[in-house]
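Any chance you could type out a protein's amino acid sequence plus the matching backbone structure tokens because I've never seen that pairing?

——
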Amino acid sequence: MGTDTDISVTDGIAQIALNAGPSARLNSQVLTDLNTALDQLTKDEAVDLIVIRGKGAVFPSGVTDPQGGGDDKTNLLAKVCRAIEACPKPTVTVLTGPVVGAGAEIALASHYRLMHRQTRIGFPHARLGLVPRAGATQRLPRLIGAEATLDLLIGGALTPIATGKYPALADELFDDTPDDVITRFVANLHANGATPRPTADIRTGFVDAKAYQTALTRVRADIATSPEIAPKKILAAVEAAILLPIDAGLAFEEAAAEDCADTEQSKALSHLFHAEQLVSAQIRRNDLPEITTIGVLGGSATARQIVLVALEAGIGVSWLIKDPNQQHDSLTYVRAVLQHSAQVGRLSQESATWARQNLRSADNANILSDVDIVLRATRGQRGVAIPEDTPVAHCMPGNDPRLAMQFVAPASTSRLVEVILGPQATEKDRRIGLALARRLNKLALVETAPETGLYDNLTQTLWRAADALVDLGQSPFTIDAAMREWGMAHPPFELADSHGLDTVSRHTRADGCQNWSALLVQYGQQGRANGQGFYCYPPDSAPQEDHDILHRINERRAPQSNMPADHIRRCLIGAMANSGAKALRKNVVARAGDIDVLSVFSQLVPNWRGGVMHAAGEGGLLKTTRAMQTIDHPDQALWTPDPVFADLIKYGRRFDDL
């Protein structure tokens, strides 16, 4: 036996205690030791019942597939799970803590499952572009049916076991210690002569065949238009579970897993997943201060969103709004949203009541006397007398000498906030920014930016590059169509309409280049806000191309032949990646993966493309470089590849390696 597994036997009950070290991550050595222990105990006539548990406070888990960061190259996990299920002696797994992927697979293969009431389980495989390959698509539906199974496997969230239909996974939910529950439950099984109960033989989740099929049909419709492969493969495997015997079902699952493994999509999603984990580590620091109350300045739309996010996260808000009319309108709006959220069940009635009670508003700075941080969320608030030593974060466009926090719009639903440290920032500013992001349940991307934040930088580059292609004779609608087909949810000119053309028009262009949003502003077209921009926005109808725009554009440049859609895409993605490369060289962020996370969470790039830096390397950085170099346009600063491109190409590397 290795050092990763301890075995003890008392009165016929054998306990295998898995030790995966401080990380509690299952690896091939732990799986090998578990497999050896099972074989040894199966042959031991003194053993009547086998318990599998964690040696520490958390049951070892993780995605053991190499694309998930594991080292299980031969799918030993599937072999171990089959050995557990086929064991001639009853096997019991005791789960504690968050249990992800392989740890949950081991529990599903066991004959009995004991789970601490606070345990959460998750299968992040779909987020990695993968399919579970140790039996989860076959065993989960046998226990809890299709609906709950698909929520776990396709949703990918870490889910409390004590909610919804998930308690059915446990033979007992316990609140005491693993030792106590083993003494109580396992000893009782032993005393009553319990026999093996393979999950393969269970049909509880198949009893209501109509509900099973309804769940399959609903999810199939939900994912029908998604380009992601893994959810469709998972759905097919769960459908096969009710039709096939376990051996055939497991073979079906393995084939589905092979179809997804090592595809460009799974590589992109796996890259993004691991990049997100590195970003999320920032808010898991143990030296962050507690945030209980924030101050918010002004009644802008941004301020309203921040107030709502904070209240829904259980943070008290002291709201300073000088203008009485704006104060009335803002408070009315926030209270109405809270009431609606409670009515539709997005917030509990208790949470909505708490939020109303912990929202204070006034027109003077006295209200800020006891807050942990003040957020300047409306223009014209720099003159407010903020209590000394109270941290302040600038939350409007533009940066701050110390701390800015840019909420990717809409703040109410976006999972990301940029924590931008200015030249005068201190470590205290960094910690308070991270602490607030954590309390708001958001990822925090830390940047050191003397000028604009990364999101603004990327969007301005996208508009600048798209305008350049229009300068060269392309239609804005052709450009948008090419990017929309590629998967961009909000292509450049539609995005400009959404942000407001007056905002986009403020960005200058090089000599001989046109800011086409500025042209539309001259004609009184503001974008989506007034129903007219590059697109028309009829009430209760989808946006429509405004072909008068092409006439006005053509008056200012000579139309040319259409550029191939693939070339448009490579140029625009290349331009944004070039902007990201410059940010890396200036140490705005530490990793290219940080830029990928930002570009995906802000919906500039679809998740299955892996982020803008990853996408630039898809198909080769050399092709991306050459595409940019073919652009004969006055804005050469935009189209000249940063030296990091040449360095990566020279050594056969990609931005993923940075």
Residues 99 and 121 are 5 Å apart (CA to CA).
